[in-house]
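Batch 3, record 17
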Amino acid sequence: MNLAAPGLQQPNPQLDAQGNLRHFLTLDGLDRALLTDILDRTEGFLSVARQPVKKVPLCRGKVIANLFFENSTRTRTTFELAAKRLSADVLNLNISTSATAKGETLLDTLRNLEAMHVDMFVVRHADSGAAHFIASHAAPHVSVINAGDGCHAHPTQGMLDMFTIRQHKGDIAGLKVAIVGDILHSRVARSQISALNTLGAAEVRVIAPRTLIPTCAAEALGVEVFHDLREGVTDCDVIIMLRLQRERMTGGFLPSEHEYFLLFGLTEKRLTTAKPDAIVMHPGPINRGVEIDSEVADGPRSVILEQVSNGLAVRMAIMSTCIGTQYLAGQGAERDRPHD
Amino acid sequence: MADAATWKDAAEIDALLATMAQELAALCQARGIERPLMVGIHTGGVWVAEHLHRLLALEDPLGFLDISFYRDDFTRIGLHPQVHPSELPVAVDDRAVILVDDVLQSGRTIRAALNVLFDYGRPSQVLLAILAERDGRELPINPDVVGLHAELEPGSHIKLSGPDPLHLERRGAAPGNADQP
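Prediction for the assembled complex:
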């Protein structure tokens, strides 16, 4: 398995010449200041949901196309709602019934969308590196956001998880965080690990059966590896459960889901070694009785539904940051001008 | 480099605020407003509003507006790095609102603030209180109560520093730092 970020050359293709975020493809290579800026901006967007009119005019007149080559209801809905709350026009392309299924190449589809004056592509694809590929071929005025590519990255999920942790713990720095489950197939875990390391977590642990963890995980990802759940969550501040990616499993990775739950499913009893104020997270959709017991998923330590709410605000922050960057080139002096 | 010079110090600003509070009280009385809701615009407007709110001894807590998401120049300058969540502690529907800002020049901030306000509800009326206004209006917006008026040369601008102590600075034009559009 290639754990490196595909297409991540120097200089970082996600940033413009001034270091502003133009695309959002992976958390690898983005520094702490930039990630913190996004988290800070997200705080502001949370308040939009509390307004009677849950909409701001930031991206009025912009067109955002959701290109979902892989099924996803929750992520696509969140991106769509985030774009609509920014007042953008949203195109949802059902790729399975679109021109690509009739033989048109992906690049021809992109060119046609660009001719319709699309300003941003939100891309989900089963192949790692797909969003990088599209970004490298997109017109200069178009931004690309990765909504999950293969086993590689899911950077907006990673950021919403960081935001949720920061909400509950104040700061990422110094925390012990355990990520439990299917590390091997998880693009979410890769993005979480990258962000946690960048933001200064004291220790990032991964807990999984030997078959669901890359053999080189400790060195490549910068994590501590555990194969025992109770031992792995001991003294942790945050426990992130992952979904078993059954659709990506091509071989016999597990004897059975029942056995997986017996060894790696999170129950109240297994939580006793974690810190008393530890929070439990899950990117969803959750498999009750497989990764997590309902008592924990619905219990007082669970912040799973908060993650969903925060996902909207984080995506608004990222989308508006990228759209804003499109017009910044050569206008650096204007940023400092008063607006009164 | 832009040159900055203290224009009005804390004592002078206190005097301006006291006069503004008197004028606001008189205006409210003339309009039959018994319980106005005061809202400050981040950041300088909130500092000014905190003083006026205390001087007028208003019952309802102070509201805060951030106009970053409503700026008409977002697509030219990007998103402001620091966005403070807007907070209106009580419903604005059918309430008389005193909107407060530090400096009024082009009028674009006030236009944006009115848009934010109306996304929270429909006030019965809005009064505008400004610490310092200057020439350069680009929209038909004028304050109901104003601390002082200034004519500045093109390229210069006024900045309120604070929150404690408050002082106003006049800043000269910097090369490449054109006046507000």
